[in-house]
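Hi all, long-time lurker, first post. I run a small reading group and we've been trying to get comfortable going from sequence to structure in the token notation. Rather than ask abstract questions, I figured I'd post a concrete chain and ask someone more experienced to write out its structure so we can walk through it together at our next meeting. Sequence below, copied exactly:
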Amino acid sequence: MASARRPERDPTRPVYVISVAATLVEAHPRTLRIYEDEGLVCPARTPTNIRLYSEEDIRRILWIRHLTRDRGVNLAGVRTLFELEERLGKRILEALYDEGTREHGGDRESRAATAATPRPADDPEPSR
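-- Answer (accepted) --
Happy to help. Here is the structure in token form:
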């Protein structure tokens, strides 16, 4: 019996409605609308104006969530990072993610504790 070959998934193909996309990234659908309003993600639209998110959109939203929740970056900062990465053609966000997981061993609680620790104004780097 010949097995049917499954076509490879196209990560740019919009397939997820907003409720499914929100579930996948563990966010409220309103949050995804805010990201769209801020220009951080641009889902495709059906002829009846329903948002459809692709795998790439989901990955981008997960990056936004990581930067805002785990790294303390606001949405304007996220936009700047995305713009820089696009202009320079470098994987700035991956380096930032790797740096954060290396520094804190991937432990969210220690990241939150480090972020909450006040630093002296003349000390640009947190003491480790």
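A couple of things your group might point at:
The radius of gyration is 18 Å.
The CA atoms of residues 25 and 62 lie 6 Å apart.
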